[in-house]
Amino acid sequence: KKTDAVVERARHNVHESTANDRPSRYRLRIAVDMRCDRNALTAGGGRAVVAAALLSSVVLFARAERVPIRVLAVQTIGARGHWDFMSSVLRALVDRGHVVTAYTPHPDGGRANYTEVDVSKGLWQTADATVTAARRQRGAAASVAASRHQCDLVYGHYRMRELLRRARPPNRFDLVIAEPLMSDCAGHAAAELRLPLIYVTASPVIAYAERAYTGHTPGPASVSHAAASHAVPNTFSRRLANAVQWAATVVSVTCAEVAFRHTEPRAYDSLGPVAPSLVFVNGHLVVDPARPVATNVVNVGGIHFKTTKRLPKDILEFIEQSPDGVIYFTLGSTVKISTAPERIKKSIMEALSQLPQRVLMKYEDKLRCKPKNVMTKIRLPQRDILLHPKVKLFVSDGGVDGLYEAIDAGVPVLGFPLLLGQTRNIESLVSAGMAISMDLISMSNDTLLKSILNLLNDQNYTNNARLASKIFKDRPMSPTQSVVYWTEYVLRHKGAPHLKSSAPNLMWYQYYLLDIISVVLTLGFVILFVAYKGLKSFYNYYYNYSRDLKSKSQ
């Protein structure tokens, strides 16, 4: 009886301590199996000596019942590539059994545990850009204005206003996932609902926004700017240009943000930004060279990979019937190659027609004078094509998702970077020895043909691509597992404040130690000044004393 009472109290205590631990999002059911060996009980005088009872086994079975995390996802960026990355993160959580409500400009259709709200009306999107327009880059102030305008549209949506009004604590949600660009207004829902915030960023480098996200600024001496034309600033001229570019961007973005907050104040300005618990970055060491990062930054490059499928019959036959292999040519989902100037299209076709390989090309219009070895389609199953063993080369615009697919397949790359960050992406693969970068506007059919043949005939490019593939796949956890683990980790630990740096709490002059430097310089100046005055007084005293002695001796 005493043993039963002890076990019952223990079981009750475990139930109380676990069932009430809401941040862990787990409830434990404890089953106690107690088997007493009757032979171990000693009898004497008609009495059972309970104190001599031996507990042969006490087995605790803990069965964890996951309570779904309720996620509010907010996408304020209209570009399809940004949503593809965020939707991959959300898909990982939904497949785990968590519940997601997404405000998105690119609704894909609801499914179990997943609800979408279409906020595409009026939202600026980069789809179907022309080749020449893609090369024009916005200024920092214009980008901040565009980001805030997109936040206005999303947070001004009637469904979002209703949600923020009704979903105050106790909340319908447990955390917020958002993607900022040039302004931190994207995380306004987390501030309004007082929930943990997780940022996602589709770029492999957080760049000039890293100070706002993690509290730390990457050193321009070793980390290149997102818009840089090099992977690593390894020369004096590159470090100088990189430092100027970093400083100009940080100052212009900060000034623009401050100006807009005073001249065009919004609701999200009054609450201020929320420091994210985590930042999921579409990065990997192959594309984003090694550098110091904050504890709460998690690289999940390649999370957009989907289960491979069998290629359509016409594409499969086109590939397998090519004795010399196949080249896959695309400029991504944002830029239409059909919008390129006629001179460029003519140069491309002339170069491709001289190759023994067949070419699969993503082309959005009817192609006149198409070479016999070229097949064009509006849409192509890119990853399934790259994984085919007969694909020898990938011609790309440098979009990071496509590069990850090429790296995963171990295929060399010929890059024509057009958009912000793509030059840096391609240059990282050039440094890895698996790519060549070219300028689409200035190239000719001869230079294009030479680069293609160089990539096809030099086995070093293929070997380096296969090495990069091995490095890319060698991870302790898959990107999907990383997203699930760290998202649940944040909620288990009530927002995981221990992952956040204290740096965001510092003023900019404190972070850069300008106050310390000014004190040291001031103190040094005072010491030098006192020393100067002391030496001068000593010199004057000695000079006058010597002169007096000399005059007396005369």
From TrEMBL:
Superkingdom assignment: Eukaryota
Keyword terms: Glycosyltransferase, Membrane, Transferase, Transmembrane, Transmembrane helix
Gene Ontology molecular function terms on file: UDP-glycosyltransferase activity
Gene that encodes the chain: UGT2C1_3
Organism: Sipha flava
Pfam families, A to Z: UDPGT
Secretion signal, residue range per the UniProt entry: none
Keyword Membrane: yes
Protein name stated in the entry: UDP-glucuronosyltransferase 2C1
Family: Belongs to the UDP-glycosyltransferase family.
Top-level taxonomy: Eukaryota, Metazoa, Ecdysozoa, Arthropoda, Hexapoda
InterPro entries given in the database record: UDP-glycosyltransferase, UDP_glucos_trans
Transmembrane parts of this sequence: 508-532
